[in-house]
Amino acid sequence: MSRKIILIIIIGLLFNMTNISFSIATPANEQMEFKDFINKIEDEVPKKLQEYGIPGAAIAIIHNGEVSWIEGFGVMDKGTNEAVTSKTVFQVASISKTVSAWGIMKLVDEGVINLDDPVEKYLTRWQLPTSEYSEEVTVRSLLSHTGGLSVGGYAGNKELKEILIEDSLHGNLGSRYQVNLLYEPGTKYQYSGGGYSVLQLLIEEVTGESFEEYMEKEVLLPLGMENSSFIWNSRIDNNLTNAYGVLGETLPNYLFVERAAAGLYTTVEDLATFLLASIEPSTQNLLPSNRIALMTEKTVLKNGTNISYGLGYSIGTLSNGVKKLGHDGNNRGWCASILGSPVDGSGIVILTNSYKGNHLINDLIADWEELLTGERPTYHINLVKQRNLIRGISIVFLLILSLYLLKISKQIQDGRRKFVTNSCFNRKRKVLKWLQIGVNTFLLIGVSVGLYAPIVSGGWTAAAFLPLGSGWLVITILLWSLTFTIAGLFPKTQSNHKISL
């Protein structure tokens, strides 16, 4: 096959992949009806779970101010094939912060604490490092991630013994978890799980109770979240789904002393109840509507800039300008999201038991936004284009690789390539070939370990953060590296080519 023909095929494949990605994400001309939206979920989610390699998911939809639909998909345990249901328990990671914020606001509403007081006013078991800005680290600033504190997130532990939250704050669980003041409070947004760990300590200090006991008695049960807990126990464990890694492996149930930041166990049913309370305050009696309104307003920095975060909630707008609020959560082996629109009385809750759950979450949220606005979100159109372009490029390089392998195979059969130890090669040539083989072997191992070994951010794998379709590209890189290793083991003989591949 001539080079011109190969080039035409490659260009054609790339063009077709671009067109496919565009057509998949093109907005519908007519706004989707609610029943069509539910039918689409029921039809497509099982297929997407298989496509993305996600064992199980639970989804709830709020429509017209009420929880209108809940369903479980896939399995909670790949070994037993036990199905996910509305009662299946998941970790929801950073969504814990949103629920914990309600515990803080209840204390504010009761007059026990003040949002604008320095947080140190309420602490005795741990203090912020001495700084000229310590007095500016307020309860409000910690809720909004503008307090200037360190520690973005937590990895969890396989077991917890007699560990207190101040042990984490002091860095006794690892120096990267020691909470410090990094910048002047109120000057910028910087996501800080450490700030919520300080708030966890505050709750324990002012109530005299453990954080999990206070939250169960004062927040979870009053909201009707009867199958939720900030601590792992036998009641939770009976319905807890397994967590799965990026390669589909079963992961431990990582435990968190930093429960306000990342430790909530809950069900899709309970979390839908919570989201409904967030967008329809009249459905609950825990907090006055003005407190919830305050929590769901954008925070204003000292320079007058608005940030897309309130007091425990991420705040944004739909493509039609309507307000949306919610939070995402990602722990090792778990991905979750809640998103709602107070104006429309609509919301969606998605819980998954996989590292790769965000691929499903992105698709479903785009479907939900299309339901409300009548158009596909631009970010998702671009995301689908990216996914398909990556796959297209991978397919092209795999095609070229196949042709190259056929060429190498034929050259070996014809005797134009011989094993590197053959006497026809001089010592210098052999050394260069073994060096080439070593470099390619190092690349094979380096890519595999770098992407899939749990060495990033306290146990996360780098592959978990790659966009969908990147697996194809990784396989392509590994196969090319393997092919170059084979080419190094069987160099061309000197008589055939001046430069050996």
Give the secondary structure arrangement, pairings included.
Blueprint lengths: L2 H23 L8 H19 L3 E8 L2 E12 L4 E2 L5 E3 L3 H15 L29 H5 L21 H5 L23 H15 L3 H10 L13 H4 L5 E2 L5 E2 L7 H4 L2 E3 H12 L9 H7 L3 E2 L5 E2 L6 E4 L5 E9 L2 E8 L4 E7 L4 H17 L4 H36 L13 H26 L17 H20 L12
Structure write-up:
Helix content is 44%, strand content 13%. The radius of gyration is 27 Å and the shape is globular. With 501 residues, the protein is of the alpha+beta class. The strands form 4 sheets. It has a 7-stranded antiparallel sheet, with helices on both faces. The chain has a two-stranded antiparallel sheet with strand order 4-7. Strands 5-6 form a two-stranded antiparallel ribbon. Mean pLDDT is 87; it is low at 17-30 and 496-501. It is built from 15 helices and 13 strands. Helix 3 (95-109) packs across helix 7. The longest helix is centred in the C-terminal third of the chain and has 36 residues, at 378-413. The protein has helices spanning 3-25, 34-52, 95-109, 139-143, 165-169, 193-207, 211-220, 234-237, 259-262, 268-279, 289-295, 357-373, 378-413, 427-452, 470-489, and strands at residues 56-63, 66-77, 82-83, 89-91, 243-244, 250-251, 265-267, 299-300, 306-307, 314-317, 323-331, 334-341, 346-352.
